[in-house]
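A favour, since you know our C-alpha cells better than I do. Go ahead and set the record down below.
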Amino acid sequence: MNCCLKLRTGIALCILFTGAGCTNPVRQLERKTILRRMWSLASFAGTYTETGVAAKPQTTQISWRAEPAAVMTKATQTGDTLQYAKGTLSTYFPKTAFGIRYRNLRELTAAEQMQWLEREYDWHVALYDINQIDDSLVAGQKTTGVRYFPNSDFAKSPFSFEWRAAVQADYAFALETAMYNKEGSEKYRIRFDRVEFQKPLSDSDFVFRYPAGTTIAEYDFADKPVSPSAAKAAANFNFRLPQESEIFRLSKIVRAKGIIPAFTAYYEQLPYQTYYTQVRDYGLKLVPERGLVIEGKKRERTGARKYRVNFSGAFRSVWFLEGGVYHTIVTSMPLSEVLEWLDA
C-alpha cells in the first residue's frame, strides 16, 4: 500500500507498505528507503492548478531548491507572489500594492528537517487507513494512485478528511492531491500541469523586490520580543492567543515595525514551528480572501468560524476574521492539529 503526504516546501512523501502482515524490520527498511528517496530531490520547477480556493481555478508558477533553502511562487491570474530565501519570507499582493515581510526566521537544520519528515510519516501512518487506487499520468509523469482515509479514532475529529494522491515514485512526490469531506464530496485539488525535477537553480531565480509604492508590513525576529501583557496593552484590538499546549509552546512575540500595532507570536516545538499574526481589520481588504474554507464548531455568540486554508509544502496557512481582528497562522504542524488548537 501507499500513503502520500506533503513535505518540506513544495514536496510530498510517498509511504510504501507491502501489506498489513509485513514485519516491523521490513516496514523500517521501507521507511528509510522512502525518506532517502524524497531527500534526493534537490530542486524542481513547474506550474500547478488549484481548485476549491477561489471561484475559478488558480494556476501558480513555482521554483523550489532544497539547499540553500529557497522558494518562489507567483499566481498567474493575480500576480500574488511568495518568496523565501536566506531567512526572509516575503509576500506581495499587486491588486492592493501590499506586502508582508518576515526577517530573520529560524531555519531548521538538516537533522531537524529529517526529524520533521519522520514525525510526519509516523503521524499519518498512525491516523490513516491506506490503500492503492488507480495509477495515472500527471504532467507527463507516471504516478501511483493512493487513498488515505481517517481511521476509526481519527474520524471523530471534525477536521479529519479523506485524501487521494497521484505519486511520482522516483522522488516520492505527489503530482496531484485531492481532499474530500465526510460526505465524500471533493473540496480541494492541486494538480501539476508541468514539472521539471532536479532543475539547476541559482540565487538569481529567487530574487524578489517589492515594486515602488508598495506598503509593507514587516516583522523582524531579531528585534527584542514583547510580553503578552505588553502586546495586549499596546494593541488597538482585543489581542488574545489560544491556550498553550504540549505541542504549541509560545517562544516569543514580535511587534510589526511602524506605528500600526500588529503582532506575530512564534510557537516552537522543534521540529515544528508556528507563526500567529493578529492585526485590526481596517476594512481595507489588503490580503485577498483566498483559500479552502473549513468551518469550525458553532459558537453561541459568533457562530462557526470560517477558516481559509492554503497549502505550501510543509507549511499550511490558516486565516480567519473575527471580532474585527485578522488572524493569520503559518505552521508546519498537521492541519487538523492546528485547527483543533485554534477552535478549542
User: Anything to note?
Assistant: Confidence is low (pLDDT under 50) at residues 1-22.
